[in-house]
Amino acid sequence: MKKGRQSFILDRPVYFRSSCTIVGPKESEGNYGGLFDMVLRDDRWGEKSYEKAESKMHRKAVEGALAKSGLSAEDIDFILAGDLLNEISASNLAMRHFKVPFLGLYNACSTFTEAVLLGSLLIEAGAAGAVCCSTSSHFASAERQYRYPLELGNQRTPTSQWTVTGAGASVLTATRPTMAEREAGEEKFAEYLGETAAEERENCGKLKKLAKNCAGKYRPDYAVSWRRGEGGRKCAVRVVGGTFGRVVDLGIDDESNMGGAMAPAAADTLLAHFEDTGATASDYDAIYTGDLGRFGKQALEYLLSTQDVDLGDRYHDCGAGFYTPEQQTFQGGSGAGCVNVTFNADILRRMERGELKRVLVLATGALLNKDTPLQKETIPGISHAFVVEAEEIAEEE
Amino acid sequence: MIAKDAYKRYVEENSPKSPMWRSMIAAFVVGGLICMAGQGVHDGIAAIFPQMAEEEVGAWTTVVMILFGAFFTAVGVYDKLGHFAGGGSIIPITGFANSVVSPAMEYNREGIFFGICAKMFVIAGPIIVLGIVASVLVGIIGLFL
Lengths: 397, 145
Fold this sequence. Notes:
The complex is a heterodimer. Helices cover 33% and strands 23% of the residues of chain A. By secondary structure, chain A is α/β, with parallel strands linked by helices. In chain A, helix 2 runs antiparallel to helix 6 (179-204) and helix 8 (258-277) crosses helix 9. The longest helix of chain A has 26 residues, at 179-204. Chain A is globular, with a radius of gyration of 20 Å. The mean pLDDT of chain A is 92. Chain B contains eight helices and no strands. The longest helix of chain B is centred in the first third of the chain and has 29 residues, at 20-48. Chain B is extended. Chains A and B meet through helix 8 and helix 9 of A and helix 1, helix 4 and helix 6 of B.
């Protein structure tokens, strides 16, 4: 049901059935280390290019989420996916492996929340029973597309952010997952991990460069950090509604200060959300922005303070909290994978354990490409927000 | 919401700035060390080939320093040096070698023709073009002097 100018509330609940996250080695050393399902030891994952590696991560994340949901590909009605590469190629190439209708999305780093909002609406409208929402980003492929070659000896500015190497996928369904279904899903995921390990081992010898790893003692390019039952079984998480964002441009033209460019979009969506739904900040246990970074977070707080809105301690930024200060990423993480893996690996798990009841997630995207700043364009931002609630599952289920 | 100008001013005033002194000292020290290494190479060549003309020794020194720049880029050291030293390692000729070799490595996967050959000059291209244009202009002026 439409609510106000740009928000909606779902008349029928839509549930997060399962999720899967895969990240690179640097990410696993960050603040959320240990929470992801799979961690790459080599951020090329045995592939010939970083783009191929990103696409592989994307595919594996979707496959993993499907396995964990206990559903087969035929049960999934749509996959909504996007990434940062030209023409969302990481998603496009990954989708060759699924016989499922595919909707390609692009809203830069806010693609994940866009996918969840659209997926929920498809389910609510009865057009789908289950959808999968996935996004990915890779530091090396993003650097090459938006910035400079990796080996170029230049300095990063203090306002810059570090693109998260990570892919994540969530399966949304109209029905609430039962305990038995969750356990069956975990069983299936364990099986899937076994299959992946066997497949990886077999493929290992095929790439010349890796042949040395395969002779004698074989060491896979990834590690599994998923543990059975770690999701906690207390609550189911459902999407309640959300707010679609408008494109906002306050004239920031520094492409290495994306936090500053995106903060106005986050403020715009947040204020619209409060106005449309009548909610206030205190209605939420936590409010997460996507990847504004440390300065962007400060800029958003400043923008909101001019409107007399104070989010207080419940406000966090996924990007600012992603890496530790020792990792020298300046403003923190960014990329389409940032908010996705943070949500799926941390926020969702905490809600399932009952630690958080009601959370607002607003991912933010900077809508630029490599040419627009050269053509003297300023950087527009966008932000889409969804509201999720934890709902206790009764014991007998 | 807030006016564009006011927000731009806020961002300009509050964005974290580069640590000026640290950057300058790092650039000075590393740039100086690279130049000392260059002088060492120069003196080495002059010692090995005593009858070589001074101009030729300079040219060979440049060639050797470019080789070093390319080599340390290829083994993945030069970018780390650059993160630390900034201008100190960009300005010397080794930095120029880095700016040609790094895209060549990066675009290796798109093939030799449209990858390496086409993309090799994405960063150094403008410098080469301006260098040639400047030398032609100086040559023409020199003709009439």
